[in-house]
Each structure stands twice: as C-alpha cells, then as structure tokens.
Amino acid sequence: MGARDGDSWEKGDSQTNGGNQPVPDSNASKYGERAENRYQGLLEATLAGALAWVLGVFITFVTARSTIRNDLRTEIIESVTGDSLTTELVIWTYFNAHTVPTAFPQEGVFRLAQANQNVVLEGTDWEPMLLIVPPIVLALAGFVVARREARRVDAATLGDLIATGGVVTVGYLVVTITAMTVGTVTVGDAIVRPDPTEAVVRAGLVYPLLFGGIGGALTWLLE
C-alpha cells in the first residue's frame, strides 16, 4: 500500500506545481500560438489583397484619367446614359489591365459596337503599359504578407511563403466582385460591364494566386 501510495503521489505531483497548481501544457500553448498566428496571417493577407486592388485602380486613375476622358467611346456612352461615368470607366480600364474585356451587348444603341473591348490591349500609345500594374501591386502585397509571416514563424519554407503570398487572393477577389458590381452600367435593357466570368476567374483568382505567390517566393529569395 505504501509503495502504491508513493507512486500515486509522485504521478500526481508531476502534473501539479507544489501539489496545488496545474503545470501548463506546453503543447496546448504552442498549438494556440500557432492558431493565433494563422488567424492573424489570414487577416493581414486579406487586407493586403484588398489594398492591392485599391492601389492598382488608383494608379490606373492617375495615369489614364485624361486618356479615358478624351476617348470617343467615353463621349458616346456618357451621352447615351446622361451621366458622368469616370468611376465606371476607370474600373473597366483596370479590369482591361488584367486582360478582362468590357462586354457590350449587341442590341439597342450598342448593336454596332464591338462586343468585347479592351482599351489597354487595343491602345496605340502607352496604354499597354498598364498591363504591368496588377502584377506589380499583387507581387508587392504577397511579398509584404509573406515577409511578415517569415518573421512570425520559425523555419518557414518556400512553399509556406508562396502559399502565404497567394492568400491575398481572398481580399482581392472580394474587391473584384464589388468593383464589377459598381462598374456595371445599365442603359434600358442593355448592360455594359466587365465580362463577369473572366473578371472573377482571371482578375479575381488567377492573377492574385499567381503574382501573390511570386511575391511570397521573392521573400524566400531575399531573406
């Protein structure tokens, strides 16, 4: 009985501090810390993706505003709608920079217009330079969030950082869908907007996954 009681006392004492206070479970503590880091990383990447979209469309606005305002197509569509469409036209142009065309319905006043238009790809001056804007802002966003992740997590691998950079897709996709809605123009029964499928798939998913991931890879190369 005495030996058993002694063994029981030793086992119980090994799980307590002074026989009264439980010893913290180090494994549970580490798991909680990792979960908190993942949650924080997800929030940061989502915010970075959204800010990348805002930065990209701002650069487009600053560099292309005068060209958009002087375009004959701008005058035509604004004369038809009776409204100033600067916001919508800048959004269309930024989608065009992702090679996503603006879709014009082949009916009503637009029946003679080209069905899919891209002022960036069809530009004859500096407009094609806008093609580099989405890759740059997305790679920058991916680089920033991956660098923070590398400093927060020990021994982060190349795959970890590429995946972290790609998470900017979450915020970028949300703003892409929102911008597509804001950039929709209705004239009677006709709807002019960025091609919905290409906007979501190419601009909202492919671009941020690819270039955000590249930004994450750059973090690994430069660390």
From TrEMBL:
Keywords, alphabetical: Membrane, Transmembrane, Transmembrane helix
Residue ranges with Polar residues bias: 14-29
Transmembrane segments: 42-64, 129-146, 158-180, 200-222
Bias-annotated ranges (Basic and acidic residues): 1-13
InterPro entries according to UniProt: DUF7978 (IPR058284)
Stated name of the protein: DUF7978 domain-containing protein
Taxonomic lineage from the root: Archaea, Methanobacteriati, Methanobacteriota, Stenosarchaea group, Halobacteria
Region listing for Disordered, in residue ranges: 1-30
Organism in which the protein naturally occurs: Natronosalvus hydrolyticus
Domain DUF7978 residue range list: 32-220
